[in-house]
Amino acid sequence: MSTTTPLAAPVVRRAKWGTTVAFVASGFAFASWASRIPSTRDQLGLTTGEVGLVLLALASGSVLALPLAGAVIARLGSERVVRLGSLLLVVAMAGIAAGVTVGVPAVVVALFVLGLAYGGWDVAMNVEGAVVEAHLARTVMPRFHAGFSVGTVGGALLGALLVELDVSVTAHLAGVALLVLLVVPLSVRSFVADDSGPTTTAEVTADDGTDAPAPGALAAWREPRTLLVGVFVLAFAFAEGTANDWVALAMVEGYGAAESLGVLTFAVFLAAMTVGRWYGSVWLDRWGRVPVVRVLAGVALVGLVLFVAAPSVPLAVVGAVLWGLGTSLGFPLGMSAAADDPARAPARVSVVASVGYVAFLAGPPLIGLLGEAAGLLRALLVVVALLAVALLVSGAVRPLGAPARRAG
Predict the structure, then answer these.
(1) What transmembrane ranges does the database entry give (predicted)?
(2) Domain residue limits at 364
């Protein structure tokens, strides 16, 4: 069984804040782009289905990067991978900013690079978060993801304001690129994952209590529990990713709301998700992973149905609130479950993140294509079926026999 080498409390605290900043910055950048999808659609003259196809470029970049992330992190370390991801994101944001004035091909290329950036960045910061959680000996992963949500709320609110002020997509995303370039490389200096425990198979043993060496990165793809956790995350990631890309447009197309109100509804969804993630650590420590996530999945199902079938705009907004709260803990819980054994965290988090991000990024284009045929609101009912699957496999996130942990 693996153990986590103790670190001094100030070192762990700095790592906790550095990891939080990485999550916040990632969420802010993502929501900044998502908040300008309607503007980008209008500027490029795209239909809903064409927007879905363009978004496939983002999904493709991430799907390529995610399966490789575990091996890259094992070789380069979490700090370098997040740093590299942030630099790629800066290039991508600048590319989108310029691309909306050039044409669809330029935006597609930039979105592909953005997908590559997020693929590595996301896995690496989750691995770092798992290491920090192990040192603190308490549940903190949901609060890291709350940081991501705080960033998304900030990005969405800023996006709504800039839409209302008629600020161009080019100016907006260029500013975001500059901010990420200034903040993220500094925050990752405090990361501890690279020096806090064993990283090679020669140094660790299997988490089943035997003396057998822990399997490599590819072996994680054959572990039943890891794959079930991946399916669990897939469903919640589909629900979250669909909201990120389509809530604003669904309000505009389905309810005739103004674009600024659509973006504000997106911000409300993100705020509800942030609340769930912030208080989720308390709920999880009190009641446990499986009971909490089952209740929240039910809340998400009610919210989705209300959002789709609401007779008025205010009730649709209430549905968005329940949708956000209900899906808040699915992704961070999956990351924690994948990282229950810190020694195998890079490989397992890479697998679970890969499966989850296929849904997070490829799901929204699918909704766009279905929305073209059946209407955007009706297309959202696909998410209901996937959340039902998540309920069925939710037992997979039950903690393993906990490895030895030391508080920082």
Answers:
(1) 17-34, 54-74, 81-100, 106-124, 144-163, 169-188, 227-249, 261-280, 292-310, 316-339, 351-370, 376-397
(2) 9-195+217-397
